[in-house]
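does this look right to u?? zinc ion version
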Amino acid sequence: MKFRRAARLAAGLGGLAILAGCVAAERRAADGAPPTPPPTPDTSAAPRPAESALTFSGVFEQGGWMRGRVPRGTGAVLLGRHRIEPEADGQFFAGFDRDAPLRLAIGVDGEDDALRREVVLQRREWRIEHVNAAIRPPGSSETFLARRRPELERIAAARARRTGAQGWRQVFAWPAEGRISGLFGAQRIYRGEPGSYHTGLDIATPRGTPFTAPADGVVVLAAREDFTLEGKLLLIDHGQGLGSAFLHADSLAVSEGQTVRQGQVLGTVGASGRASGPHLHWGLTWNGERLDPLLFVPPR
Ligand SMILES: [Zn+2]
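got this back:
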């Protein structure tokens, strides 16, 4: 499993991904237009739109991502339900949710509709994983919700922050060494009871092992007091709506508002919150879409 995924990623990066930006060429009509114009006004006589200058490349599958470019000063990029504001240099980032539709319309706001294209994603098969843990922590659900609600509010507020970080431009690095003990997207069965899917990649490593920033960013949440499920939780904004989450830490070495560089130590791995043993849970989100961290890092 691990090697198959690695091979697919290598193919994506090695070939510098799929240059979907060339698709617009297909829209050029064949040469040899009729010499006489039609007698009545017809929309087909309208001048053909120029080719879109939108280009992009990436890993085109559910949980994947793309980086793209439009000329400076161009309007927002429209991708499915998202409106993406490019950086000043025209570059932008987008991600594809685990359950993203397999075809997404893409275009530039204000540009001719005829220039709209489609991003086609490969469908993923998600693993079923059995977890030897209760589906929810012990205690009455009212007590749990009273504690949980403010935690979820803090997470949502942190994820909504826009820091201008530029780490989204980088090739991501592994945040920790160790055995992969849980795959992104896996449907989890807790002692026979189906739960939600696994939202990150689990890297099993002894308690106290340092973990590092996979890319540049800004710390938007550093919870030193355990969250119910996540334990000591760290959220990093990488810019363009892309963010990392690290769960179950034993200790955190950074604080909210702090700028971090790729490779910088963020804390140590632990088993805080709901965890069956010490491991680093690494999640990646882009504007609410959940992405697969394995599709961001080089194979190993
Ligand atoms: Zn996990």
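The chain has two domains: 2-32+43-120, 128-295. idk if thats expected tbh
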